[in-house]
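Suppose a colleague, Dr. K., hands you the sequence of a protein chain of 120 amino acids and asks what its three-dimensional shape might be. Before reaching for any lab equipment, you can write down a predicted structure in token form. Begin with the sequence itself:
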Amino acid sequence: VQVEESGGGLVQPGGSLRLSCKVPGLTFSNYAMSWYRQSPGAPEKERELVAAILGNGGGEHYADAVKGRFTISRDNAINMAYLQMDNLQPEDTGAYFCNPGYGVVIFNSWGQGTQVTVSL
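The predicted structure, expressed as tokens, is then:
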């Protein structure tokens, strides 16, 4: 499974970013999707779940640290998932990855991720 993340960047505290995730070649609506964050210096095995959404677009789940600030969504017609991140804080800094599954990695095939840096 090929996963392509994009949309990261450098933003000041309080700013916003919208991450995108494309998964071509997958019957997209059959799969939940999740976003994960790998903090600076952390190994791959310590990627933490940030948000998840079911295949039908319901069942949104968020880590406590991002509730009320991040919104996960998807467009099954174009095999895309999104993570709208508002009121970003320095602790949100990290590489963000998406993967099919609802908090459980189904395909051990990761994309390059997209870097988010929140700093003055």
